[in-house]
Structures are given as C-alpha cells and as structure tokens.
UniProtKB/TrEMBL annotation:
Ranges of Low complexity composition bias in the record: 9-22
Start and end residues of each stretch annotated as Disordered: 1-24
Pfam families, A to Z: GNAT_LYC1-like
Residue intervals of the LYC1 C-terminal domain: 198-409
Protein name in UniProt: LYC1 C-terminal domain-containing protein
Length: 409
C-alpha cells in the first residue's frame, strides 16, 4: 500500500519508540485527512474514498463527538513542525458519560454512585512503513495516562463556555480490540466478556405490521424517553450490584440518547450513501409501560451491497423494564416479536446477521425461551471489549455492567 506520509530523508532515521522526542498530540486538519486516506481501505471499503473522508468529517459533528467530544491523536516526532512530521501512529477517543458504584459493605446506605466520563478509543492505526517498531504501543501507554485527566472539568471559570461540560471524574476508558486480547492488555486495557448471540436475517413481514402484534417499531422520536428510562434503571442496577458485591466497583457506560444517536447518525450516513435512503426502524418495543422489553439497533456496513458478509444488524442495547417479570409468557412473546422485527430489518437492509452482544442472564433466558434459532459466538480476536479502570483495585476484578454494543466506537 502506498503512503501519503511525508518522505523522510535517508539522513533522518526513524526515532526509537522510547525516544523522549516523541510526543502524543493532535493532528492538523491536513494530517487528519492523510490518516483517513490511509485507513480508508481497512475501515471504509463500503464507501468511495471521498465518501469515507466525508463520513469521518461528518462524524466529528454528531452527538458525543461534536463540540470537542472526539479527539484525534497522533504519536509524532516533536522536533519536527506540523504537516512535515511523521505520523508514527494514530487513534481517536470519544468522550462518553459513565457511572461507577461501589459499596464497602452490603448495606444499601453505603453505596456511592459516581457520575463521570469514560473515553472510548478507536481507529488505532500505524502506517505500514512504521509498523513493528513499538509506536502503537508507545502511543497506548501515553494515552492511558493522558486520558485520566483529559476533558475532565476543572473549576477554571475563565475556561471557554461549553454547552455540555464534563463531570469532574474520568472513571475509565474502553476499546474494542480487533487484534486479540494481548496487545492492549500490555498497555493496561484488560479484556472482558466478548460474546454475542447471532440470529439469521429472515425476509418476512415484521409482526409489528399485524393487528395482533405486541411489538412496535421504535423510531427516532421514541428514543429519548426509552433512553431516559434505561439510564435510571441502570443507575439502580449498579447500586444494587454494588451492595451484593461489596468492595467491587461496578461500572457502566451510560446508554443515554447521545450514545445511541452517535450510532444511528453513522448508520444514516452509511445507508444514504449505499441505498440512497435511511431506515426508519431503529429498534422495537413490546409491553405496557413498566413491563416493557425493548431493543435498539443499528446497521453496520463494511461490505456494502457487494459483500453482504461484512454487514451486520447490531443490537445496541436490550432493556427489560421489570427484572422481576417471569421469562415465560408475556415477556418471551414480546421479545420474540422484537427479534423477528430485527431479522426482517436485517434482510431488508442487506445484513448478513443480527448480533446481540453479552446478553444478561435474563436476556439469555429470553433468547432460549423465544424459540428462534440462534447460535452463541465467543470472540477471541475481534471486538474484544477491553477496559482500563482509573479507580482503586484491579481492572480485571471490575463488574462491567451493560457491556453491550452501544459502548463500541
Ligand atoms: C495494530 C497496529 C496498530 C500495531 O501498530 P505497530 O505500531 O506496528 O505496533 P507495535 O510495534 O507497538 O506492536 C507490534 C505488535 O502489535 C501486535 N499486532 C499487530 N498486528 C496484530 C494483529 N493483526 N493481531 C494481533 N496482534 C497484532 C503484535 O503483538 C505485534 O508484535 P510483533 O511485531 O512482535 O508481532 C498496526 O499493525 C495497524 O495499524 N494495523 C492495521 C489497523 C489495525 O488492525 N488496528 C487495530 C484495530 S483494534
């Protein structure tokens, strides 16, 4: 693969990965475009180069990313000027809202639930000409430290106005490794549960279109209320789990509206380019308020129209509103209709499969009870959910609650 990096003179050898002259900083706009041009074959095969460059630029303007929520990073030689320096390795981080809960004892009054931020890391990339020299490892080591304080609110009243200020705690950071479990673990991101339930697409009329159906499609306008309920339920779940596991920190990314919109607006960009239209059905919900079950989903395209194997309908989040409801009967019936709508949407939008990441015990029981053919896949190479914890105790001992696809970036 050709490189768009500036050519180095033979007299300027590449710096060692441990060189003090290496810095972690932000790329200029031109450097960012160079990186995107290099990553296009890997991450944008369903788009033309121009389409991919437009998407990456567009993704700096959507919820979560806008107003400085996304940060692009490069490891480079600090002794050289911007736009003429080598882009030795690169990645990006996305600021997200997060929660942690811990209780020293099993007394509910002892629980502290903390609101904070967590960074999602993605697009880790080293140009082929620079690979194998330790640059990505150096970048990850520097980032692990930098992110502990990055975008954390200060009490500086002279700071520029921000419509969405960060809370004063960076709780943890996450990434989803496509290169197995060891590379990122070496820099402090421990691998967590990474399995999914897979359903086949089924080109049938969705049950929601029948009079007798209990499940209804979710569109953009229903999401705000559902995400708000979900966030409240998750807060309570975290507090409950902290009490049942005293001394263990329970953490979660907040499944708020912005977290979902980041995925859905990305999906809309992709489907507009591939199909010339956007899907209206963003999930499905069944049951009466207080007894609902719902799923929110997004379609991901790496194969486009030519290679359906690269396309997946990802269930971002599954919520059971009343955890005390019996699995059989009403709940299983509603859940099965939701999955059938997902299967029909997957078929209509050229997805090879439907994936639901790390279902809870309750949702796993629903999967079994709903009677729809499926298989469980335990991943060991791709999309390995990995987390670095900034609080006390070992990362690997954390209880990562709601480790579902909505956290991916
Ligand atoms: C992965 C990548 C960023 C590593 O960059 P790098 O600067 O060469 O990394 P380092 O020199 O610090 O470390 C090299 C180590 O990365 C690991 N690694 C690289 N590619 C790997 C892969 N496909 N699977 C597993 N491990 C891999 C190996 O442990 C390798 O060690 P080795 O050279 O002894 O085999 C680079 O290969 C790349 O850009 N690949 C394409 C994009 C990509 O896959 N990004 C990761 C997305 S999660």
């Amino acid at each position: 693969m050709g490189s768009t990096s500036p050519k180095r003179s033979p007299a300027a050898p590449l710096p060692s990965a441990s060189s003090p002259s290496l810095i972690l900083t932000q790329p200029t706009a031109a450097e960012r475009s160079r990186i995107w041009t290099l990553t296009h074959p890997m991450w944008g095969p369903a788009l033309t180069l121009d389409g991919y460059l437009s998407r990456e630029a567009y993704l700096t303007t959507v919820p979560l990313a806008k107003e400085g929520g996304v940060t692009h990073w490069i490891l480079t030689d600090g002794s050289q000027p911007p736009d003429a320096r080598p882009l030795l390795s690169s990645c990006e981080t996305l600021r997200k809202r997060a929660l942690s809960a811990c209780a020293p004892t099993s007394t509910p009054a002892d629980v502290t639930v903390v609101d904070g931020i967590a960074h999602g890391l993605g697009s880790v990339f080293t140009d082929e000409q620079y690979r194998g020299r330790g640059y990505a490892s150096r970048m990850m080591q520097e980032l692990g430290t930098r992110l502990r304080t990055w975008q954390v609110a200060t009490t500086n009243h002279n700071a520029p106005y921000s419509p969405s200020p960060s809370p004063p705690h960076a709780l943890f950071s996450v990434l989803y490794s496509d290169i197995g479990k060891t590379f990122y673990a070496r820099s402090g991101w421990a691998p967590f549960a990474s399995s999914h339930v897979e359903f086949a697409p089924a080109p049938t009329e969705p049950p929601a279109q029948n009079e007798s159906s209990v499940a209804k499609p979710i569109g953009y306008h229903e999401l705000a209320e559902l995400c708000s309920v979900d966030a409240q339920l998750l807060r309570a779940t975290l507090a409950r789990r902290a009490v049942t596991h005293p001394g263990t920190a329970c953490v979660a990314l907040l499944p708020d509206l912005d977290a979902m919109l980041w995925h859905l607006m990305r999906e809309d960009f992709m489907t507009t380019h591939i199909f010339g239209r956007t899907p209206a059905v963003k999930g499905a919900v069944a049951g009466a308020v207080g007894r609902r079950v719902w799923a929110v989903w997004t379609r991901g395209y790496y194969g486009g129209l030519d290679k359906v194997e690269g396309n997946t309908l990802h269930i971002l989040r599954v919520v059971v509103e009343d955890e005390d409801m019996a699995v059989e009967g009403e709940l299983a019936h509603g859940f099965s209709e939701i999955i059938r709508i997902a299967q029909a949407e997957a078929a209509a939008w050229r997805s090879a499969d439907v994936q639901m990441w790390n279902p809870t015990d309750k949702v796993s029981a629903l999967v079994e009870a709903c009677g729809i053919a499926h298989r469980v896949v335990v991943r060991d190479q791709s999309s390995i959910a990995s987390l670095m914890w900034y609080g006390e105790g070992e990362t690997a001992e954390l209880d990562w609650v709601a480790n579902e696809k909505y956290g991916w970036c």
